User: Which sequence fits this backbone?
């Protein structure tokens, strides 16, 4: 009789990966990162557990968008008060805070629940080429 394998929380081995975002398309990069954060690249993937690995993104300011998205794509946030809507073009967001643009793209591709918030905490995004995670010996992600 065949049974479905379900991983246990203690069996999960998490690794560290580093990704260089230089000249990579934002959406394609975000979907690859979301796959790693969820753990879907592992043969022991279990949907209800945090199976994913840690991902470090460097050179976030050099990510690119295709087409006219820099001028046309809008980042929206709301304070919760009447008239509290704030709109910002992605070109302005990328020059002001490129880490946020990548984080938001990945966040939209993760589950929208407690597990997704836990997975997002394993994403580390940095504007330049330096990061403080050398001790974890991250592997480059292809």
Assistant:
């Amino acid at each position: 009789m065949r049974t479905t394998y379900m991983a246990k929380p203690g069996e999960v081995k998490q690794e560290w990966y580093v990704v260089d975002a230089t000249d990579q398309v934002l959406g394609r990069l975000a979907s690859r990162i979301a796959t790693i954060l969820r753990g879907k690249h592992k043969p022991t993937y279990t949907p209800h557990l945090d199976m994913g690995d840690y991902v470090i993104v460097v050179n976030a300011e050099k990510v690119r968008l295709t087409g006219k998205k820099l001028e046309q794509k809008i980042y929206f946030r709301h304070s919760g008060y009447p008239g509290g809507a704030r709109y910002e073009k992605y070109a302005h967001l990328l020059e002001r805070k490129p880490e946020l643009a990548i984080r938001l793209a990945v966040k939209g591709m993760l589950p929208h629940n407690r597990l997704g918030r836990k997975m997002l905490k394993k994403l580390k995004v940095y504007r330049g080429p330096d990061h403080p995670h050398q001790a974890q010996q991250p592997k480059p992600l292809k």
Remarks:
- The chain has a mean pLDDT of 95.
- The domain at 15-95+104-140 is CATH 3.90.1180.10 (Ribosomal Protein L13p; Chain: A;).
- The first strand starts at residue 16 and ends at 20.
